[in-house]
Amino acid sequence: MLTLQPDAPVPLVSQIVDGLRRLIAEQTLRPGTKLPSIRAFAAAHAVSVFTVVEAYDRLVAQGWLVSRANAGFFVKRRADEPASAGAAPRADPRFDTRWYLQHIFETRHLALKPGCGWLPGDWLFEDGVRRSLRHLASDGAELGGYGLPHGHMALRVLIAEALAEQQIAAGAEQVLLAQGSSQALDLVARQLLKAGDAVLVDDPGYPNLMFMLRFLGARVIGVPRTPGGYDLAALEALLLEHRPKVFFTQPRLQSPTNSVTPVAQLFRVLQLAGQHDLTLVENDLYVDLDTEHRPSLASLDQLQRVIYIGSYSKTISPQIRVGYLVARPDLLDDLAQLKMLSGLTSSDLTERVAFGALSEGRWRKHLKSLRERLAQAHERVARRLTEAGFELFNEPKAGMYLWARHPDLTDSAELLQPAVAAGMMLGPGHLFLVEPRPTGWLRFNVAFTDDERVYRFLEEQIRLQAPHAAL
User: What 3-state DSSP class applies to 433?
Assistant: First the structure.
């Protein structure tokens, strides 16, 4: 079908994409034509199946191909071309971001949760929370009135001290407490954006954030993540084309890919932000899970162009809805005013519970144990997924996730219904994409994937899909 040049400077994936687009444009491959299966194409052109999966995925995203469940890949018919009799239209994904937001917490009681976004209860700081609650009860915590607009002062001081350890110079007056990182992100978005503004996000990235930005009327544009951080060439092109106002990003242990941005790229992103008058919103949600001390955008920029966001939901408890944002003083005052207008103060009681847990002597020991436990789970899950034939996006051996795909599972959304029927919550890749499309990628939470029942389910689904992939 194509003549590929393995020694050429152009990557094989790009050669396949460009070659197939040319054949489609020339009508050599006409609308409705079925392409060779992934394995057949790989064998015919002496390339890996993962190379073909990536090329087909890109062509689907660009609108040249369409993927049909259990049938394969077909040249997409344009809107102005008549459909042939009996042609099966591609159904929209049944599980989109709206579904995810509505049902992710309703399915938290499923027996198996390899796709969830939190840690098991016995991995969290439950003892610290209970001790803090007992202390508050015995101390006669005040239940009347509201908290301070910026949040509980003692906790803000403690956060400022923790930031200093990360080389971020910010006083307690620059810390605004919020109900988790989600409220912090929402406040920033509503303060900085108006309907029609272009905004950059990681792609793949955080589905709640994308949904919220679209609800505000922003034009959401994805910056591709790579195993080594950002696709900087794509970022530069997007800045020139769209002139966005804000870039919401997770440089460290990013969800869902768990990739980590190297310091050289962080410097380049800050340089580009200065050139294009771009505000950077750094959601450093997993900083306490990192086994290494790394620079952040905020530490390199010292909050001139960066708004820094953190949370304790992943490490203390998701029930303790305590997050925070840190910004330069003038911007923080505006954000505090917006917080008061939209929901008055955050909960002083939960902030006191968080402060009690963080200020006791066992907190650092808990974090050390949690990091070690996650690192061990990463090793076991990565090995088991690889044995099952999965390709891993990267292996950070820290944080909560692994991003992986199998060559015989071209649309991970097809696994959702059988998974729920089997009592399992999965994290299909299309939920995390800026422009949802069929993809084989899945997000695995290593704390919940270290279970042989998960692999038995996946292996059974692979056996069911493999005959179709070989057609």
Answer: coil
**Does some domain include residue 449?**
yes
Give the number of domains in the chain: 3
DSSP 395-408: --SSSSEEEEE-TT
Residue 236 token pair:
């530069």
430 inside domain:
yes
Instruction: Kindly state whether residue 373 falls inside one of the protein's structural domains.
Output: yes
Q: Give the CA diameter of the chain.
A: 79
Kindly state the average pLDDT of the residues 351-373: 92
Q: How far apart are CA 169 and CA 203, in angstroms?
A: 30
Cα gap 172→247, rounded to integer Å: 25
Chain position carrying tokens 């840190």 = 326
Query: Quick one: CA torsion of 310, 194, 347, 366, rounded to 10 degrees?
Result: -10
- 238 shares a domain with 220: yes
pLDDT for 187-237, tens place per residue?
999 999 999 999 999 999 999 999 899 989 999 999 999 999 999 999 999
Which pLDDT score, from 0 to 100, does residue 56 have? 87
CATH assignment of the domain containing 17: 1.10.10.10
Q: Which long-range contacts (CB under 8 A, 24 or more apart) does 357-360 make?
A: 357/125, 357/128, 357/129, 357/131, 357/132, 357/316, 357/320, 358/128, 358/155, 358/158, 358/312, 358/316, 359/154, 359/158, 360/128, 360/131, 360/132
* Residues 182 and 243 placed together within one structural domain of the fold: yes
Q: Are residues 437 and 462 in the same domain?
A: yes
Q: Is the same domain home to 403 and 369?
A: yes
Is the per-residue pLDDT at 336 higher than 60? yes
Indicate if 256 and 377 belong to the same structural domain: no
> What is the C-alpha separation between 4 and 6, in angstroms, rounded?
6
CB 115 within 8 A of CB 442: yes
In a domain, 1, yes or no: no
* Residue range(s) defining the domain that contains residue 402: 97-117+365-469
Q: In what order do the strands lie in the sheet with 229-230?
A: 175-178, 323-326, 306-311, 279-283, 246-249, 198-203, 219-226, 229-230
Q: Is the dihedral of CA 296, 153, 369, 121 positive or negative?
A: negative
Bigger pLDDT: 375 vs 179? 375
